[in-house]
Amino acid sequence: MSSDVPGAGEQVLLVGLGNPGPRYAGNRHNVGFMVLDELAARVGGKFKAHKSGAEVLEGRLAGRRVVLVKPRSFMNVSGGPVAGAAKFYKIDPSGVVVVHDELDLPFGGLKLKLGGGEGGHNGLRSISKSLGTRDYYRVRFGIGRPPGRMDPADFVLKDFSSVERKDLPLELDRCADAVEALIGKGLTAAQNDFHAA
C-alpha cells in the first residue's frame, strides 16, 4: 500500500460532519452526513447508536475495513464523538478521514488533503482539539460562497438551492467515489483523479 493511504493496513474511520435532526438534514452544513449516507448505501447497512456519541456502521469499502461515523452532537462539538469512536476502534488520527462542507470551493468542487488549518470550520477545530492533532485526512465538498452580504454562518444552515439540488445526488456520488479512491489508492492518486484541472 502506498504511504499516503489513510491508516495503511488497518481499518479506517470515515467521519461525516453535520448537525443532528430533521431540521438540519438538507442544510449545506450537512453535506458530510449526506456523503456518509451514500457510503452507507454502498456498504449495505444501517447506522446504529454507539456509546461514543455517534451513529456508526462497520463494513468494507475499496477493499478496506471501515467504520462510518456520524456524530450525534452538534457540528461545533463533533470532536468528542469522533475521538471516542477512534479510541473505541483503536484507530489513530492517520486513519481518520473527515468529510465536510467547504465555503472556499464552488458548489460540488472537491479537495482532498492531509492536515492543515481548519479555515474557520468549527467542526474541524473541535476534531483537531479532541484528537490532539491536525494530521488527519479531510475531504472538502464545495458549497460556494454566500450571496451578497449574507453571513456565512447563516448560509451554511440554509438548504441547497433548487438548481443545486438537481445536481446534488451526482456530486454526492462523486464525493463518495473520491473517499473510496483516497482509502483505496492513497491521497496523491485520489487528488489526481478528483481535483479540478
Automatic annotation (TrEMBL):
Residues binding tRNA: Y24, F74, N76, N122
CDD domains recorded: PTH
Catalytic activity: an N-acyl-L-alpha-aminoacyl-tRNA + H2O = an N-acyl-L-amino acid + a tRNA + H(+)
Major location (coarse): cytoplasm
Family annotation (Pfam families): Pept_tRNA_hydro
PROSITE patterns (alphabetical): PEPT_TRNA_HYDROL_1 (PS01195), PEPT_TRNA_HYDROL_2 (PS01196)
Keyword RNA-binding listed: yes
Alphabetical UniProt keywords: Cytoplasm, Hydrolase, RNA-binding, tRNA-binding
Compartments (UniProt record): Cytoplasm
Enzyme class label: hydrolase
Ranges in coiled-coil conformation: none
Record EC number: 3.1.1.29
Site features described as Stabilizes the basic form of H active site to accept a proton, chain residue numbers: D101
Family: Belongs to the PTH family.
Subunit structure: Monomer.
PANTHER family: PEPTIDYL-TRNA HYDROLASE (PTHR17224:SF1)
Name listed for the protein in its UniProt record: Peptidyl-tRNA hydrolase
Organism from which the protein derives: Amycolatopsis deserti
